[in-house]
Amino acid sequence: MTAAGWCVLLFDSVSQVLLAEKVLKQAALGHKVIPVPRQISSDCGVCIRFDPAERDRVVEALAGKVEVREICFV
Amino acid sequence: MSRTVYLDNAATSWPKPEVMMKAMCAFSSSVGANPGRSGHTLSIEAARIILAARETVAALFAIPNPLRVAFTRNATEALNIAIHGLLGEGGHVVTSSMEHNSVMRPLRALEGRGLRVDAAPCSATGELDPRDLLPLLRPETKAVVITHASNVTGTLMPIGEIGAACRERGIALCVDASQTAGTVPIDVEAMRVDLLAFTGHKALLGPQGTGGLYLREGLEHKVAALMQGGTGSASEFEVQPGFMPDKYEAGTPNTIGIAGLGASAGFILERGVEAVREYETGLVARLLAGLSSIPGVSVHGVADASRRSAVVSFTLKGVSPSDAVLSLDANYGIMARPGLHCAPSAHRTIGTFPEGTLRFSPGFFTTPEDIDHAVEAVARIAQGKRR
Ligand SMILES: Cc1ncc(COP(=O)(O)O)c(C=O)c1O
């Protein structure tokens, strides 16, 4: 974990979270599926947390594969 | 030792692959949670199982995006979503004269509310000549709803040709793949299928209570949902989400069933639908040859096994289908189905209404010896012997 905290990927549905999880696994990018933190509007129950330093690589890996609704910092 | 020969795979397949039972037991004993609703480890694991099943089923039908598949209880629910969702406000629809009641009843229900229904006539072998359907397509036609194969005669419909004509005219093509999913190759794009309704418990070898509906990209905006409820997504809104597959999946799904379906569909995918098809076509050819050689037996449908799914309907001179089935069961351990097979219109088309036919439907686990045993039994019944 870096001093800046975490980045969180939000999606419309759990299926999309899990599709994204597979993509990130394949790309060997560190991440974790977690319940949506309280301070973010809870849309679907889960989201993906990752290190902000990886942000560009994460966005690139998911581009065209899974639609991300929002990326937030927590 | 009494032998059981199960020849009713068109009603539901049996036996099931070992992997199906294992997947269902594993879900029950070590996962069990509500998929994705809660965000804890077990809930996410349950959602992963459902996603994996979606991916496997999508791969079987060459669907690139697995989220285009919504799981349902069976083909009937999928067809009701498609038919009510697309045609609930009326308009014009074309179908065939070989349909199952899970197509005809929703259409007839809507007919009472202003939908206009035309059924393309099929031949006495259950075949549809596209030239008999195309003239029924009008500028105001919203959809063609048609079976991929008849559950009475097994006759395969010319989906590719109908699909091309529909796509050209902007008409939605909805295919009932109940009899073919898992046993006849299906490629939704190559066949120009817009909506595909399938059931999990027949040739996909999954458990009862599973099925699904594929909708082509964008169609979720035109097909209303039958039910509304919790989806674990967009929870802050009190309106049903409009995206796939959540729009059509209100309520806790049949996760244990879907776990089983995913494993069974994987079993088919591993072997390849083409290989399953080739094996079953061989069984059907053997059955057709055997039955046709028995005096007093009339086999319905096309003679060529490669032009039908694994279903053979026949009648016996002087013996009613229900009496024959009783004797097959009691004296030979053969499980078959008599009657109208929920498809009165199909029986009218082939001239077997209202008595119906006797139906043998082999499956993946049927052996050539089972077929020979069944042919032998029918020969003895035709000769008026008890055993
Ligand atoms: C052609 C056809 N359509 C639809 C169905 C309905 O399938 P289910 O009972 O799984 O809804 C069946 C089988 O019963 C069928 O053979």
Could you describe the 3D structure shown?
The complex is a heterodimer of chains A (74) and B (387). By secondary structure, chain A is of the alpha+beta class. Chain A is built from 2 helices and 4 strands; from the N terminus they run βαββαβ. Chain A has helices at residues 14-26, 55-62; strands at 7-10, 32-35, 46-50, 70-73. Chain A has a 4-stranded antiparallel beta sheet, with helices on one face. In chain A, 28% of the residues lie in helices and 23% in strands. Chain A has one domain. Chain B is α/β, with parallel strands linked by helices and 387 residues long. Chain B has 2 domains: 5-16 and 272-382, Aspartate Aminotransferase, domain 1, CATH 3.90.1150.10; 18-271, Aspartate Aminotransferase, domain 2, CATH 3.40.640. Chain B is 37% helix and 15% strand. In chain B, the strands form 3 sheets. Chain B has a 7-stranded mixed beta sheet with strand order 2-8-7-6-5-3-4, sandwiched between helices. A 4-stranded antiparallel beta sheet of chain B has the order 9-10-13-12, covered by helices on one side. In chain B, strands 1-11 form a two-stranded parallel ribbon. The model of chain B has no long low-confidence stretch (mean pLDDT 96). Chain B has 11 helices and 13 strands. The interface between A and B is medium-sized, with 18 and 25 residues. Bound molecules: pyridoxal-5'-phosphate. Pyridoxal-5'-phosphate is lined by residues 74-76, 100, 102, 147, 151, 176, 178-179, 199, 211 of chain B.
Quick gist of this model?
Chain A is an alpha+beta fold and 74 residues long.
Task: Furnish the topology, listing elements before pairings.
The complex is a heterodimer of chains A (74) and B (387).
Chain A lengths: L6 E4 L3 H13 L5 E4 L10 E5 L4 H8 L7 E4 L1
Antiparallel strand pairs in A: 1-3, 1-4, 2-3
Chain B lengths: L4 E2 L11 H13 L10 H20 L8 E4 L2 H13 L3 E6 L4 H11 L3 E6 L9 H4 L7 E7 L11 H11 L2 E5 L18 E5 L11 E5 L39 H17 L1 H20 L4 E3 L12 E5 L4 H12 L1 E2 L1 E3 L4 H7 L6 E4 L7 H15 L5
Parallel strand pairs in B: 1-11, 3-4, 3-5, 5-6, 6-7
Antiparallel strand pairs in B: 2-8, 7-8, 9-10, 10-13, 12-13
Helix pairs in contact in B: 1-7, 2-7, 3-4, 8-11, 9-11
Pyridoxal-5'-phosphate binds next to α3 of chain B.
